[in-house]
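ARCHIVE ENTRY
Sequence with per-residue tokens
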Amino acid sequence: YFDGVSVHPYSNKVAPEKSDIFDDVEWLKYYLERYGYGDVPIRATEWGWPADGVEYVTEEEQASYFVRANILNDYHDAFSHIDWYNLSDQTASGEAGATFGIIGHYQDKIPYGAKPAFLTAANYNALMTDAEYIDSVLIGTDVRAYRYKLRDGRDCVVAWKISDGTEVASVNLGTNSVTKIDSYGNEAEVATVNNEITVKFDIMPVYLVGE
């Protein structure tokens, strides 16, 4: 008898889109269903990326993956909850395995200083809490985009390039203008041309919000 399944879907060096995480969850769902536990929730009770910048990922990649993992979770309908590991770095030394935090260590030069992932997490939570996932949208060749209805009723497309570098791509949003919000919450009003907006995408998610 149990109420849920706890998994730790770490991929350490690999972006969430390029890992086996969501394929593994599908297999887990298959076996739960097979043995009569298809209604049992699956929770990611630890998930994160160590941001040492050498052996694992950079702080920018960590910040990007926080948002991307949450969006992809909606797309794959994988986990009922995600618990990010963890709040603060475990040491001030910068050891590879001790840099999972979205804020620094208390013995750092700036105690508990915000890392980029803290800022992207705060912006994501402020904008996307209670948002309703709609569907995915294909943009360009290497850009992934996902459509939501925000809690205030506005439409939102979240998009990013899944690999390094940049790609310029256009998307038809059916409106004259949108609010472009970067991963850190900076906003800019952008006029569309024939209802299309052209954006230079990179690994950091961009939110395109409007009617």
Notes: The mean pLDDT is 94. The chain has three helices and eleven strands.
